[in-house]
Amino acid sequence: MDDEPTEAMSITGDRTSGWIYSFANGSEAVDVTYSDIPGPWIYSVEGRMVAGKPAITRLAIAPRDPEKPEAITRETVRRAPTGTILGRVKSTLRTKWNNKVADVFAQARIQSVKVGRSWPAEHFVQVAWFAVDAELTDRAPRQVIQETWGVSGVTASRWLARARELGYLPDYPLTPVKGRLHGYDYVVATQILEEQIVQKAFREGLTRASNPATVRSELGKVLHRTIFGDSKEARQLRAEIFAASLTQLAEGSPDEQVRATAQRLRDRITQVPR
Fold first, then answer.
1. Which of 94, 179, 78 is nearest to 138 (CA)?
2. With the CA atoms of 225, 231, 235 and 240 taken in that order, what torsion angle do they form, in degrees rounded to the nearest 10?
3. CB burial string 84-116: b at 16+ within 10 A, e below
């Protein structure tokens, strides 16, 4: 039967879950539940190609807390972030089969949703990462931001200025990385962004401290909270530090067995969505 899936891939990650299906007639479908969107609602969506174009073919709105449901009103439906969700679905449907799961997670990070009239800080962290990676690969950051989010040059410039104002972009020029393995720029961009986030945390955490003993105490607290805390950002930072360490071992260890083992482990963990 053409409407029965011949292949399926599971999507299981932080606040994003579902399935991607391939059918006998060559069509594909994305069935994803997003709980990362701010507010009291969780959105479940099915996306398919309709008349040759990516489209939302089903959208369900459910309360985030089933024990304390809220009424779904006309205003709820009107405010549903269908534009953002459609942007995510479009990207995944247009991506090659083997890369679709990774794209779902990438788009969940890139396609943020405004809180009120403002973008969350996490949005500008993503903007900063793409800007840094653009410089490392000798591309124009503004152009990359435009193409990644599909926005105008004016909006891209405004986002870059805000990312810099928030302390996510370095205040020194970056030198393009050349002659390295494919994907090495991802590692360097992540390291640079980690440094900026840590510096930002230090600045904000130590602003009011003047006594040297207080500074040392506060510094320890900030460092511990930034790296060893239970927040999503701390867990992600630890994972990225581990991945970066594996990359360094895989490329620079004098022991061939260590290089080979680090390479295999790095390949395995980069295939697993976080």
1. 179
2. -80
3. bbbbbbbbbbebeeeebbebbbbbbebbbbeee
Enter the pTM of the model.
0.46
Cα gap 29→48, rounded to integer Å: 5
157 pLDDT higher than 90 = yes
Q: Are strands 53-63 and 41-50 parallel, antiparallel or unpaired?
A: antiparallel
Phi, psi of 87 (to 5 degrees): -60, -40
Burial of 190 (0-12, 13-18, 19+ CB in 10 A): buried
Looking at residue 224, its pLDDT comes to 55
Q: How many residues does the chain have?
A: 274
Residue-averaged pLDDT of the chain: 77
Running DSSP on this structure, what letter comes out for residue 79?
A: H
- AA letter at 2: D
pLDDT at 249: 76
Locate tokens 């996510």: which residue?
168
Query: Which residue in 43, 144, 52 sits closest to 93, CA to CA?
Result: 52
Query: 160 CB contacts (<8 Å, ≥6 apart)?
Result: 127, 131, 141, 142, 145, 169
